[in-house]
Structures are given as C-alpha cells and as structure tokens.
Amino acid sequence: MNTASYTTEAIQQAITQGAITEAYQADPQQVIEALNQLRATEVTSYLQYKQHAYMAVSLFAPGLKNDFEAHATLELHHADLLAQRIQQLGGVPFYSPVDIAAQAASVGVRPEQGPTLREMIIENLLLERQQVAAYTTLVRELGERDPTTRRLLVEILADTERHASELADYLKSTSEVRP
Ligand SMILES: [Fe+2]
Ligand SMILES: [Fe+2]
Questions:
Q1: Percentage of the chain exceeding pLDDT 90
Q2: Could you give the CA distance from residue 117 to residue 61 in angstroms, rounded to a whole number?
Q3: Distance between CA atoms of 132 and 88, rounded to whole angstroms?
Q4: What pTM, to 2 d.p., does this model score?
Q5: From the CA of 75, how far away is ligand 1's center (Å)?
Q6: Which of 79, 95, 107, 130 minimizes the number of CB atoms within 10 Å of its CB?
Q7: Domains located in the chain, CATH noted
Q8: What distance in Å separates the CA atoms of residue 28 and residue 42, rounded to the nearest whole number?
Q9: Which ligand is nearest to the CA of 155?
C-alpha cells in the first residue's frame, strides 16, 4: 500500500490506537475497567471451582470433582478471553492477586469454600448468578457502542447462565444430598 497518501500524524494515530477508530463510541477506559472487574470474578470463580474439586475428593459424589474441574477450566478460558479484549482496547489485565481480589470484591464476589458438598454447590450457584447479573448489566450498558466486546460478553453470559441453571437443577434433584 502507498502510505504516502497518509500524514505522519494519521499513521502515528493508527499505530497508537490499533483497533480503536473514530467509529468506536464507547469509552475504552471505562470498558477496560469493567472488563477487568468481570475478569477478576472469573479468576475468583476458577480458584473456587479448583478448591472445590480438591476438597470434593473424599466426598461420596465422585462425578462432582470432574464437574468442578470442567467448570474451572471454562472459567479460566473466560478470563483469557476478557484479557485479550482488554489488551486490544489498550488496557492491561490485572495480574496481582491483591488487585484481582479487590476488583472481584467490588462486584460482591469472594471465594468461598463451604464445609459440605451442598454448600459448595450453593456457593458456586450464587457466584454464577452474580456474574450473570454483572454481564447482563454491562451488555445492556454497552448497547451497540462496542459490538465486539458486547458479542464476547454475550457468549460468556450464555456459558454462565448454563452453569447457574445446571447447578440449580442439581440442587433441586438432590435436595437430600449431604456428604
Ligand atoms: Fe465464567
Ligand atoms: Fe461459570
């Protein structure tokens, strides 16, 4: 291509802004902040599911350990997807555990490890529901101002609603479960 038809300033701006053009109608800093908050809930969710997988070992529902592991893997994938988008928007994903804990707590998410299997599943359900609410709110706020972020959030939201639904169904079907 012939870059001579572009001013030095235009080329510099293109390099600085990458994917962000004048058609981008959201505030990148606000979106980055919100994505970092959501990502912190995903990292927390990952840690919580891993912890539950470790602790479910000696309990009498062996399939749940694998379910917790599978959920943990997907939560980490969600965190990765959000990190990629944060980077594309010119931001930096939080990586300090202190920052991640603070960001997750700011939307009401803290890692929990109840003493029984049933309590663990309830904790996971509550965490997933907090995420469903947070993702739904951000999707609505973004509207059409950042279609790529919106589409990503909708994809993660669908996984999260599926998790919440599965956990609720499990609790309904095993209301007598005690480890
Ligand atoms: Fe997730
Ligand atoms: Fe989930």
A1: 76
A2: 9
A3: 24
A4: 0.90
A5: 4
A6: 95
A7: 26-173 (1.20.1260.10)
A8: 21
A9: 1
